[in-house]
Amino acid sequence: MPEPSERSVGIGVGLGSAVANISEPASAMLIAEDVFGTTAPVEGLTAPPARRAMWKRLGWGFWVAVAICALWILAASLAGVLPLPNPNFAQLNPSAPDYCFQSLGHPYASHLLGCDYSGRDILSRVVYGSRVSLIVGFGSIAMGLVFGGALGIVSGYFRGWIDDVLNVFANVFLSFPSLVLALVIVAFLGRTQTDIILIIAVVAWPLLFRVVRASTIEYSQREYVLAAQALGSKPSRILRTLLLPDVVPSAITYGLVGVALAVVAEGALSFVGQSVPSPTPTWGNMIYAGSQYITQDVTLLIVPAVAMFSFILPINYVGDRLRQVLDNRQGVI
Amino acid sequence: MSPKRHVREMEDLDDRPLLQVENLKTHFETGHGLVKAVDGVSFSLERGRTVGVVGESGSGKSVLSQSIMGLLPHRGVVREGRVRFGDVELSNASPDELRDLWGAQISMIFQDPTTALNPVVRIGRQITESLRYHLAMSKTDARETAVALLRSVGLPEPEERLRWYPYQFSGGMQQRIVIAVAIACGPKLLLADEPTTGLDVTVSAQILDLINRLQQERYMSVILITHDLGVVTGRADDVIVMYAGKIVERAPTAELFRDMRMPYTEALLRSAPRLSNPSHTRLQAIPGNPPNPMNLPPGCRFAARCPYVQPKCIAEEPPLRDTASRNHQYACWFPVGSPEGRQALEDNQARGVRAATGLAS
Amino acid sequence: MVHLVRLRRLLEVLVTLFLVTLVTYFLTSKLPGNEGSVICGSAPPSCVTHEDAILYLNHPFFARYFHWLGDLLTGNLGNSLTPPIPITTLIKQTYGVTLELIVYSQVMALIAAVPLAMWSAVRANGLFDKSATALTFATLSLPAFIVGPVLVLLFTISKPFSLFPGVAHSLPPLWSDPATNLYVMFLPSLTLAIGSIAVYQRLLRADMIATLEEDFIVMARAKGLSTSRILFRHALRPSTFTMLTVGGVQVGTLITGAVIVEITFGLTGLGSTLIHAVGSKDLPTVQAITIIVAVAFIVINRVIDLLYAVIDPRVRRARAV
Prior knowledge:
The structure holds three protein chains of three kinds. Helix content of chain B is 33%, strand content 20%. Chain B is built from 13 helices and twelve strands. Chain B has an eight-stranded mixed sheet with strand order 6-7-8-3-9-10-12-11, with helices on both faces. Chain B has a four-stranded antiparallel sheet with strand order 2-1-4-5. Chain B starts with 18 loop residues before the first strand and ends in a 10-residue tail after the last helix. In chain C, helix 1 packs across helix 4, helix 5 crosses helix 8 (178-212) and helix 9 runs antiparallel to helix 10 (227-239). The interface between A and C is large, with 43 and 48 residues.
């Protein structure tokens, strides 16, 4: 992998090292444009070899984790199309072939993982439950990233009084333990799926704000940003073209870890009975129900627990690993 | 507290030297190659004598001291050769045996006193710790000894300051404390690894004087490691000059300065600024850099920077040879002050060659 | 100069506290089903109007807020709706369980995490370290509401392990019957502890690895001290400071976890009370518990900030310079 020094072009006082620090060709182009008034490609600043090495460096475990997450996303999206019985339907007729009322988990032909205490198919409920968890998880983090991320960049780049005000604003929300805050807002807002997404976004945004802010502060101190400032580039331009390409990937990796936390948060909410109301299955309320029936049947608890764990662990790993590799790549200097 | 520890008492050494190093090699296995930090060093040290080890950064002198003591990790480190301390083969000793010796018989002081002391432990504790561990002293005895030690290293008001933390002291004071910690149990050998590099000049002199005084009071042997020839004048009995992992000259101090043979030693001496020089005298640095320890040249390792260099130097490595006086050795084909050496120097100057880089043309 | 900084921090804290109370009040004051109707139930409408008047429900928002704040600051938290007892009493009865859960679990976590971290740090990247890292990573993906029921399953149902009671049938207070209390609280605290162990182990390990590379550790070795002594007396202390900072943030996670654990194990603490209050739309109780918890959280974090400066001599040195 070519060392940064090999890529440096003798541009001039102070900018030589600044250019050497650039890992994104886009940013390099813009420096060239600002300095030379030309968009002619500056030699030696492309990064493909670094990118290829990065994908390899992620490791096989990473790709296994990605596959598992993709599987869940697929299952959640295609739930309606898959040959699953209705998750909310309980066959009450004992002589019907798909009857498994009170069987509490013992596998029947038409019910691969058995049924719960009300006679509803467990496998189907787990798959449909993934829908709620995933939609809430990704949705709330997406919202939180947009809102918290935007504020974070502004706060981190401009500092000063805006930073102080936004920090206090975020701290107010961070002063509430997450579940407590969520519960209070649930009482205030309601329990539809959209409400829950919003609620978890409110709980998550301060953390994303902090992370993006820290990231922005770090990247704003790179020499090429200082150089661009010295050249008189407008802040909006600097933000858009120099900082975003670095901050956004970083924010996304934190966001992935955030998705895991959001899924857990939704799970906690539904465990205590304050998420989307029955009969909609969610992993959280299935786990709660399962915990009540431990003495009769263990499957009711284990199946949703394993399902949830098998999504959270991989996505945690994906986000974490991406962040490690990204830090290595961009922290080379 | 720790159980009573047996301190190994040295049998009377008669006239055997305290420390004998035979052909010590220390190589590090890194991902890029084998780093030959110390590559065949031999010397011996009598009780109560000081030897100065002089060399540039990267000459291997710090690795030498840590290797003698056995402080280096095992993984990735290749050690050859023998180190004898009195009756004990340090090179073969078990970790337990080494731990018995460290602090009690052999001690080390480090370059940077600000990082050598634990910042969150009071200095009194840092001293009494070894006393109670090695010598099984009671709390009160240890405390009194610590106070005496601090007084003997020149720390004012030692009783109150036992409870202080390291950050409350200046650099010079911290180094005194480090020395107190090191000599607490009365070791016979003290390895001082650049003890004055981080300190300013006046403080340095005080510290070196302190080490000298302690050495005489306690009949300690000292290995004084430094890059500054000026440090060893008047303080070391013998001097060893190291370059790129090998000894290139060894002599009693006075003789070294009076009759140096190795061009490197001469260059070192010349590069030191002197108060007696008129102001704005140009400093004579040694051009170039030490060789890459992973890729050492076949001939003399100093050839690339030597003003006396000849083709023979690049091809063959000079062995360590004795002079007429048996305790002066050097390794050079064209030593300073010899007819061959003078001729070599004149030739090079006539051709305008400063170092081996010019020879190729 | 220093005082200016301290004053500023104090101001920030006060402003934050103020805003926290405002936000809490705002969020909880709009509960559908106003208190009047809940209290009165099926009583005639005049009852509702009466209750509403008592609760200032007809006044503008900020007037209500300041009244509430005033009550709060004088220690009057009002009455809960179901059951109709003073909230202060309710809190007095229940905060002990939550507090005990948190303390007990953290003690457990530290006892387990410290040796694990030390061994991982000493044999960094060895087999033990790699397994520990993998295990802690997996544990971090296990929320309390999975760990809790699974622990109940393992320890109370499976015959060979039937050691601990699952759902707490009766919990004697700590001072009157410590043995039974600790026994009953063991599994719930363990549930909370497991997450903390993972966090602490990772932090302490990273810090220790960094500390073990410091010069003073080499010096300690050169003094001939034994490995265990070096680890415990020299390496451990400087490495604990990150844990202390994180401890503050952890409290928030712990409170969340405590809510879950109280529900799982049937304990009556602040958490379960809060859940019931939310379920029954008991606004005053929700308000009160939220405020207490938030304020406690803020105060604990501030205290830790101050402690940090006192405990770490290096920070003192930085100030002295």
